Amino acid sequence: MREPRLAWALFMSHNYMSINHLGAVIGRGTELGLTHSRMARTSASSQAGFTLIEMMLVAALMIVIAGIALPNLRSTTETYRLSTAAVAVASKVHQARTNALKRNRPSWVLVDGTARTVQVQSVDATGTINIGGPEFMPSGIVFASGAGTVTLTFDSMGRPVNPPQTIQLLYPGSGLGLSRTVTVTSTGRVTNTSP
To answer: How far apart are the first and last CA of the chain?
Structure first.
């Protein structure tokens, strides 16, 4: 009686049923010894996880990508710091010109290379006054003037004295020779350029 049942199950599995259904059709503990749960467990365990070679290839690929990306990230950060410092200096120059026009008195930008700051100053009846607070440069940014002080002066009409006047910013630690120049033209226009 078992033989026709087994033959029918094999015939059915060959025509339209998968091998996983064979154990369910025949039943547990048959002559074939194939059960649904054992077959499912065998096929699932042979395909789970990653091989060591696959993991090593992924790790090697990540190392190559990091080797390409890290130097670019560093130079981008350095360029961003220098650009930020140049924008801050240009802002202080605009502020000095605006104050010269507003107060109808000379104003200037004091660049202190030792403290790495930029400060707007003007004059009133009591003497020299600071306008606003100093702008500190980001770490690594220095002025081309060195440790000394430089002034960029506007007269009471907002015109620059001895144009063109420039303030050059350097990033000596970058290894890329990064620099930005803030220039004030004879008309009072402020430009922020890189060589």
So the answer is: 95
The predicted structure's pLDDT at residue 74: 80
Instruction: Give 105's contacts (C-beta < 8 A, 6+ positions apart).
Output: 122, 123, 124, 156
Which residues contact residue 187 at a Cβ distance below 8 angstroms, ignoring those fewer than 6 apart? Answer: none
Q: State the pTM of this model.
A: 0.65
How high is the pLDDT of residue 188?
87
Q: Which residue has the tokens 């660049």?
A: 111
CA distances from 123 to 15, 127, 155 (A): 101, 5, 11
- Tokens read off for 189: 């226009």
pLDDT in tens, 80-103: 999 999 999 999 999 999 999 999
